[in-house]
Specification:
Number of domains: 2
Distance between the termini: 61 Å
Order of helices and strands: HEEEHHHH
Strand order of the largest sheet: 1-2-3
Mean pLDDT: 88
Largest sheet: 3 strands, antiparallel
Low-confidence stretches: none
Oligomer: single chain
Number of strands: 3
């Protein structure tokens, strides 16, 4: 049904890369313009803080994941998302920075 009403749609980049303008030209000749936010790229947008990565590098090979999360939280460090560390967050840092875990 919209195909019968809309003639074309144009995406217009903004200088601010987090937004985009959307131009809609209707078959009647009317024109509308909307503004929308662009999603951020997950990797660079949520990078782990470097003090946390350094602590995992130092203690990672000899400390298990649960204890490492406790140490990071005790040091008042948070993840790239601003949350307290848990086992999954520590495992992600180990994976991303190729930090080994201790042998079981």
């Amino acid at each position: 049904m919209l195909r019968t009403l809309i003639a074309d749609i144009t995406l217009l980049p903004e200088p601010e890369r987090s937004e985009v303008r959307i131009g809609i030209r209707w078959h009647t000749g009317a024109v509308d313009e909307l503004s929308a936010g662009r999603p951020l790229v997950p990797g660079p947008a949520k990078a782990s803080p470097s003090p946390a990565v350094e602590l995992v590098r130092q203690l990672g090979p000899t400390t298990d994941t649960g204890q490492l999360a406790e140490r990071l939280n005790a040091a008042a460090l948070v993840t790239g998302h601003g949350r307290p560390f848990d086992a999954a967050a520590v495992q992600w840092i180990r994976h991303a920075y190729k930090i080994p875990a201790p042998d079981p």
